[in-house]
């Protein structure tokens, strides 16, 4: 008869190594999110859609750079490039946001993340940063290719390259604006459902539906109302800010009048609201 | 066959997510009503609302949600195997699901488009838009039902079609318009009730024949695909 109360040593070992804290968890989530945005470290099927979009964007940039260097013609400026690629950016966001958010809900990894030192705010921040980086790379790299095309064929030496860079820098900033606004909206929608398909459909619906609303609002009412019509859609919102900041000759279909600051304020409020709602969403997550 | 249709309809509409189908049509009617209330001429807002919102967004997106929902969700859940093991011809399964998809899409899109047509002009325009929407529902549903059998990511592929093919390329390259359901729908509506609002860019014969070709070919391929459907799962 065995003695009662004996605890047998069955060989469990304590972890003796260094314990990584919140920051390491945040960095890991960020790197993982950024890699999986482009399907790195995942199956070939997961790479199809992100690289399809990236491929089209790069192809267009190469063509633009070639035309610029051979014929000396500027078809799109850096800022116009972003505007023209709006549909592809929407599609990219619709692929990316569900991949970053909905997959974790669907596969039930959220309780595992949150049983680590990582907090909800860290999780949201890491995902947001990963997505902003990914979207910005999607726009910034082709813009850089366009820059290289222009820089190597400049006639005025270093000064020409520097002038070209002064054109590129606002273009990069504009891309960042696209990335931040679209990421915050996309992530918020994706965080509401565990099904990637629904999240993707929802994101596209939100972005596409708002465009005709702008079209209608811009023809009814007074001039003031028309100038404010662009507020209704994220795309015209960004275009409005771009027009306000560039302050130059803008050949937009949508005159914003003197309401530029209103556009900027709404963009900031929209981003802040989306991020706060995301934080509220992750205050409590369903366990398995 | 009717049981399959019934189960499909219940799976589609019986849950809370059926409410997701409501906002798009309501927005369509709402915008048209606002324009009408402001006494604007339909020439100004008709194209933005009917083509820009109705035919370019509401019709394809509703068809995408419904078309991939009837079959795709069952593939995802793995409940498709229960239907496949019943002694039913695969043809009947596809036809039942396709029928439900067409019916739901058509009801969700024709009613608001008819209302918009009424607000924009006459009952004649409303009927033309409604008929065109029915034709579009049939073609889109066939395409999206097929997509949900060809790939595990039918929604993304469907979005590629709507955004890149019809949206982006349709604007820049005139050649792709011949293979764009959106253009068929616009053409059919325009020919039924000629106005200045709708820009028809393909021939009426092309539009009708190609819509039918889309519907028939996609359905036949879908039946063929379901006949050799493999249930092996994959993760990615």
TrEMBL record, chain A:
* GO cellular component labels: plasma membrane
**What Pfam family is a match, any one?**
ABC2_membrane_2
Name one molecular function that GO assigns to this entry: ABC-type transporter activity
UniProt superkingdom: Bacteria
Where would you find the membrane-spanning parts of this chain? 48-65, 85-102, 123-152, 172-190, 197-220, 262-280
Per UniProt, the keywords (alphabetical) are: Membrane, Transmembrane, Transmembrane helix
Cleaved signal peptide residues = none
Q: What is this protein called?
A: ABC transporter permease
What species does this protein belong to?
Answer: Actinoplanes aureus
From TrEMBL, chain B:
Keyword annotations for this protein, in alphabetical order, are: Membrane, Transmembrane, Transmembrane helix
Annotated Pfam families: ABC2_membrane_4
Q: Which regions span the lipid bilayer?
A: 47-72, 93-119, 125-147, 154-173, 202-223
Taxonomy, superkingdom: Bacteria
* Name of the molecule in the record: ABC transporter permease
Q: Which organism is it from?
A: Actinoplanes aureus
């Amino acid at each position: 008869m065995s003695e009662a109360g004996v605890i047998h040593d069955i060989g469990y070992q304590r972890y003796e190594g260094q314990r990584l804290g919140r920051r390491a968890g945040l960095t890991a989530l960020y790197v993982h999110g950024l890699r999986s945005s482009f399907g790195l470290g995942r199956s070939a099927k997961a790479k199809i859609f992100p690289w399809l979009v990236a491929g089209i964007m790069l192809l267009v940039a190469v063509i633009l750079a070639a035309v610029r260097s051979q014929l000396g013609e500027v078809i799109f400026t850096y800022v116009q490039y972003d505007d023209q690629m709006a549909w592809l950016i929407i599609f990219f966001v619709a692929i990316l946001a569900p991949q970053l958010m909905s997959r974790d809900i669907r596969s039930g990894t959220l309780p595992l993340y949150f049983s680590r030192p990582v907090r909800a705010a860290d999780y949201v921040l890491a995902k947001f940063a990963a997505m902003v980086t990914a979207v910005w790379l999607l726009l910034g790299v082709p813009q850089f290719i366009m820059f290289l095309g222009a820089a190597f064929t400049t006639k005025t030496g270093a000064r020409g390259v520097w002038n070209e860079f002064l054109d590129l820098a606002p273009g990069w900033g504009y891309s960042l604006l696209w990335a931040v606004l679209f990421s915050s909206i996309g992530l918020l929608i994706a965080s509401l459902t565990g099904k990637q398909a629904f999240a993707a459909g929802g994101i596209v619906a939100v972005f596409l539906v708002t465009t005709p609303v702008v079209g209608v609002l811009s023809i009814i009412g007074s001039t003031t109302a028309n100038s404010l019509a662009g507020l209704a859609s994220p795309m015209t919102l960004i275009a409005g800010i771009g027009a306000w900041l560039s302050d130059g000759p803008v050949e937009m279909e949508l005159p914003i009048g003197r309401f530029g600051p209103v556009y900027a304020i709404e963009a900031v409020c929209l981003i802040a609201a989306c991020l706060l709602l995301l934080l509220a969403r992750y205050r409590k997550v369903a366990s398995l | 066959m009717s049981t399959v249709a019934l189960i499909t309809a219940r799976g589609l509409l019986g849950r809370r997510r059926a409410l997701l189908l409501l906002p798009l049509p309501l927005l369509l009617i709402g915008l048209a009503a606002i324009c009408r209330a402001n006494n604007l001429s339909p020439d100004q807002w008709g194209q933005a609302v009917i083509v820009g919102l109705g035919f370019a967004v509401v019709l394809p997106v509703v068809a995408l949600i419904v078309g991939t929902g009837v079959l795709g969700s069952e593939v995802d859940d793995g409940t498709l195997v229960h239907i496949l093991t019943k002694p039913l011809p695969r043809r009947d399964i596809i036809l039942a699901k396709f029928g439900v998809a067409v019916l739901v899409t058509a009801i969700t899109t024709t009613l608001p488009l008819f209302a918009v047509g009424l607000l924009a002009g006459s009952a004649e325009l409303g009927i033309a838009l409604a008929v065109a929407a029915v034709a579009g529902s049939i073609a889109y549903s066939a395409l999206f039902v097929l997509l949900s059998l060809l790939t595990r990511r039918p929604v993304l592929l469907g979005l590629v079609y709507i955004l890149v093919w019809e949206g982006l390329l349709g604007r820049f390259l005139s050649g792709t318009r011949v293979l764009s359901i959106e253009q068929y729908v616009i053409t059919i509506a325009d020919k039924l009730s000629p106005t200045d609002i709708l820009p028809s860019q393909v021939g009426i014969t092309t539009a009708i024949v190609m819509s039918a070709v889309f519907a028939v070919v996609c359905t036949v391929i879908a039946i063929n695909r379901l006949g050799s459907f493999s249930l092996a799962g994959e993760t990615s």
